[in-house]
Amino acid sequence: MHPILLLNITGPDHPGLTAELTAQLARHGVNVLDIGQAVIHDRLNLGMLLEVPETEDAAMRRALQQIGDQHGLHTEFTSIAADDYEHWVAAEGRPRFIATLLGRKLEAANIAHLAQVAAQHGLNIDGITRLSGRFSLRADEPRKRACVEFSLRGEVADEEALRRDLLAITRDDEVDVAFQRDDLYRRHRRLVVFDMDSTLIQCEVIDELARAAGTYEEVAAITEAAMRGEIPFDESFRRRLATLQGLEVSVLERIARELPITEGADRLITTLKRLGYKVGILSGGFTYFAEHLKQRWGLDYVSANELDIEDGRLTGRVKGEIVNGEKKAELLRRMAQAHGIDMRQTVAVGDGANDLPMLSIAGLGIAFHAKPVVRERARHAISTLGLDGILYLLGVRDREVPTA
User: Fold this and answer.
1) Of the CATH numbers 3.30.70.260, 1.10.3720.10, 3.30.390.30, 3.90.650.10, which one belongs to the domain with range 4-90?
2) 305 Cα distance to chain centroid
């Protein structure tokens, strides 16, 4: 076996530098066993693991040192023992994970806390990549995004304990952390479904209808009782809907025109459609409003509750079966099966307890700005950014998303 060297080069970057260095390695018959390069603020960090013919070792080092001196680079060589190299090769089969850290801004403490949790659970950080774009420190941008992705390797003895430790970071640091296995399915999601109320839109439509009908307080009281578990979801839904009897359809038209779209929804769904995803709405709300959003974004699928209307007014009843939590999960399975999509390639996004069934069966289930109980039970949560923060969990960089 030829000598193995770890070459590290740091300093000012300029075009053609990597070509010049590797061309010199080629002249000395060097094999490149591993390579990694990053440029941060025009500063080069280049590492290469090299297998060097013994007769070329000294000459190669002198040649690279000369190139480094010409360009103001620091060049460092470290000899690697053959046994250490083989141990490194043997680690190739260890499980890999992706941890995504995101928020409005990222402080050193946020990164330190995530790195500490990873180390406590026996995970090594193989790489860190920035997914978010650059933002100005002078401009006042309340909706700026910051995200870095950690590539981790190692065996996790207790994934539930790891998840609890990561959840603690999100509570204490005002950031979000997603933890996924780095496998084929993570990189090839194909179907995304959303809850509508308080997810795609920033309101609960039934509350807006109740305000128009003058029954908001009654509806709110029923909702609170349902949240306390005193009333089953289907019964509470029917009782709330009954308070809307006699409401004119023109009110629905006005509310549909004025739906407050959630931050990042347009950017997210436009990008998903460009990438070829199937996108749908599975909502415990109403088809009248879901169809409005379907037309806005060209969605593939909508399933929600159909309002019963007679003579231009609501009857206070629903047509057909109520779309509750169990129904959402069933519909998600049907959609995936109809399109020949593995469930591990699905994404579900919602905010309420009735979204938990579909979040639990999706390959990537995301609690979005959800209530604490939902956040704790869901495997992933976003509470700091808009809906387009989901793109980071799919591995999409800001620079890859068209601005128009």
Assistant:
1) 3.30.70.260
2) 28
